[in-house]
UniProtKB/TrEMBL annotation:
It comes from Halogranum amylolyticum. The keyword Hydrolase applies. This is Succinylglutamate desuccinylase/Aspartoacylase catalytic domain-containing protein. Coiled coil: none annotated. The lineage of its organism: Archaea, Methanobacteriati, Methanobacteriota, Stenosarchaea group, Halobacteria. Residues 1-26 are annotated as: Disordered. InterPro entries: AstE_AspA_cat, N-alpha-Ac-DABA-like, N-alpha-Ac-DABA_deacetylase. PANTHER family: BLL3975 PROTEIN. The keyword Metal-binding applies.
Length: 318
C-alpha cells in the first residue's frame, strides 16, 4: 500500500486525496490535491508537482492530462502527484504565497515548524525525497519564455549527470544548466540524492496548449526512459545554455522585439527598440554575446531600467 496524505493505493490501484498542510485564517483545513498511481508491477517512484508558483498553471494542465492516461495495471512503479503546491497563491492567481509573501521555490527543503511556505515545502519535500525521480513543473510565470528544462544542482554536484539525463529524457529541446538559488526543489532534491528537474513550460497567462502538450509528452518520455512502461523512449539531443544575459530598458517607452523566442542571436544583433508614445525611436538595444533569445516581458510598456528580455548564452548540445 502506498499512501500520500489521504490517498492510498495498493499495487494496481489509483487514488486521490488531500495532503494537509495547516489551516486558513478561518480555520478551514488546507489540503493540497494529491494522487497516487501504484503500478501493478514493481519499479521506481516518480514524484511530480505543479503550481509551486501559484500563477504557473501549465503544470496543472499537464497533470490533468497525464493522470487519467496512467493505467496502474500497465505501470511498473509508482507515480506520486501533488497537483497544486502553492495553495494560497493559487486561490488568488498570484505568484507568491500571500500568507508570508514568499516564493515557494525559495523555501525548500522547508521547515515543518516554519512559515506557511516553509511548512508546505516541508510537507511536499517529505514525499518527494522518498522518490527516485522528481519533476517540479514550472513555467516562466506570465512572461513569454521558450519551453525548457532547468537543471539547478550546479555542474559540480555529485548528481549533476543524473539530473542532466533526466532533463534529456524529458526531451523538450532546451536545457538551462545553471546552479539555482538556495531553496529551489531542483537543488534540495539532488542534495538528498534524488535526480530533480524543473521543466519550465513556456510562459503565459492561464494555459498554453502547446506548452501543456510538450509537458505531457515530457512526462511520458520520462516514464518510458525509466522503465515505468515496457517501450523505450528515444533520447533526443538537447540544446543547452549554461548562463543568461538579461537586458533592461535604457529608456522609458514601448518595447518592440526584433527577435522571436528560440531564435539564434549574434553579438550586435538588435534585440529590441524602445519608442515613445508618438512612435519616435528612443533606444535600440543590441546583443552583447551570442546565444538564444530565451525570454521576454509580456507587456510593452517599460520604465528606465525595467526588465525586457533574456538571452541564453554559453550554448552547446548534449
Ligand atoms: Zn515557477
Amino acid at each position: 500500500m502506498t499512501t500520500l496524505g489521504t490517498a492510498s493505493a495498493a499495487p494496481g490501484e489509483f487514488d486521490t486525496g488531500r495532503l494537509e498542510v495547516g489551516e486558513t485564517r478561518d480555520g478551514s483545513t488546507v489540503g493540497l490535491p494529491v494522487a497516487v498511481i501504484n503500478g501493478a508491477r514493481d519499479g521506481q517512484t516518480l514524484y511530480m508537482q505543479a503550481a509551486s508558483d501559484g500563477d504557473e498553471l501549465n503544470g496543472v494542465g499537464v497533470i490533468q492530462q497525464v493522470v487519467p492516461q496512467l493505467d496502474p495495471a500497465e505501470l511498473s512503479g509508482t507515480v506520486l502527484v501533488v497537483g497544486i503546491v502553492n495553495y494560497h497563491a493559487f486561490q488568488i492567481a498570484q505568484h507568491r504565497n500571500p500568507v508570508d509573501d514568499t516564493k515557494m521555490n525559495r523555501a525548500y527543503p522547508g521547515d515543518e515548524n516554519g512559515t506557511s511556505s516553509e511548512r508546505i515545502a516541508a510537507a511536499t519535500f517529505d514525499v518527494a525525497r522518498q522518490a527516485d525521480l522528481i519533476l517540479d513543473l514550472h513555467q516562466g510565470s506570465t512572461s513569454r519564455m521558450i519551453n525548457e528544462v532547468r537543471v539547478r544542482c550546479g555542474r559540480r554536484h555529485r548528481m549533476h549527470r543524473e539530473c542532466l539525463e533526466l532533463a534529456k529524457a524529458f526531451g523538450i529541446g532546451y536545457v538551462l544548466d545553471q546552479k539555482g538559488p538556495d531553496g529551489q526543489l531542483a537543488r534540495a532534491g539532488p542534495d538528498e540524492g534524488v535526480p530533480t528537474i524543473d521543466p519550465e513550460l513556456g510562459g503565459c497567462v492561464g494555459w498554453d496548449d502547446e506548452s501543456i502538450r510538450l509537458g505531457v509528452r515530457g512526462v511520458f518520455n520520462v516514464l518510458r526512459h525509466y522503465d515505468f512502461f515496457d517501450d523505450d523512449a528515444d533520447l533526443q539531443r538537447q540544446t543547452r545554455a549554461k548562463s543568461f544575459d538579461q537586458y533592461g530598458s535604457p529608456a522609458g517607452g514601448l518595447v518592440s522585439f526584433e527577435k522571436e523566442l528560440g531564435t539564434r542571436v549574434s553579438p550586435g544583433d538588435t534585440l529590441f527598440e524602445v519608442t515613445d508614445v508618438f512612435g519616435k525611436l528612443k533606444a535600440r538595444v543590441t546583443a552583447d554575446n551570442s546565444g538564444i533569445f530565451w525570454r521576454s516581458r509580456r507587456l510593452p510598456q517599460v520604465a528606465t531600467g525595467e526588465y525586457v528580455c533574456s538571452v541564453g548564452t554559453n550554448v552547446d548540445t548534449y
